[in-house]
Amino acid sequence: MGKKHNRRGLPPSNKPDVGADSSATTPGETQRGWRGFVLGNLFGAAAGFVVRPIAAIILGFASVFLALAWQVGPQPSIDAAHYSAFTAHADARIVASWVAIEFDPATMG
Fold first, then answer.
1. How far apart are CA 76 and CA 71, in angstroms?
2. Residue 84: which region, alpha, beta or left (left: phi > 0; alpha: psi -120 to 50)?
3. SS3 of residue 86 by DSSP
4. Closest C-alpha among 15, 19, 40, 43 to residue 29
5. Of 5-9, 19-23, 39-43, which one has max mean pLDDT?
6. pLDDT(105) > 90
7. Cα separations (Å) of 97 from 24, 40, 75, 94?
8. Could you tell me which of 59, 35, 57, 55 has the C-alpha nearest to residue 47?
9. Cβ of 88: how many Cβ atoms within 10 Å?
10. pLDDT for the residue 39
11. Under 8 Å CB-to-CB from 5, ≥6 apart: which residues?
């Protein structure tokens, strides 16, 4: 009918299960693992000198862009909603107006 598959639907592999038995790894496999780890760290350190400045420039432009987008986009709307009680417009008319001033120059001293 077809090839046999394991529980995950994958074809069976020749490698032993990692969690099944810790003694299943041979010394050669451990050495290759350490060699890959060390070479990966060396390559990462060497490539970091090139990648870090590029990433810093990209992140700098992204932060400036996000700050400008915030100030142009939602910040004015939030400020307007926050200060709407202080800047509301009320329509009114003066029905009667008068001014009374009581001025006594003797109390001025």
1. 7
2. alpha
3. coil
4. 15
5. 39-43
6. no
7. 100, 86, 42, 7
8. 55
9. 7
10. 86
11. 11, 12
* pLDDT over 60 at 43, yes or no: yes
Q: Which amino acid is at 46?
A: A
Q: Answer for the pair 16, 24: CB distance below 8 angstroms, yes or no.
A: yes
21: left (phi over 0), alpha (psi -120 to 50) or beta: beta
The two three-digit tokens of residue 47, written as one number = 């490539």
**Per-residue tokens: 38:** 């060390």
Please give the average per-residue pLDDT across 17-34, as a whole number: 62
Average pLDDT taken over every residue of the chain: 79
| Alpha-helical regions (H) of the chain | 27-72, 74-82
Amino acid at 6: N
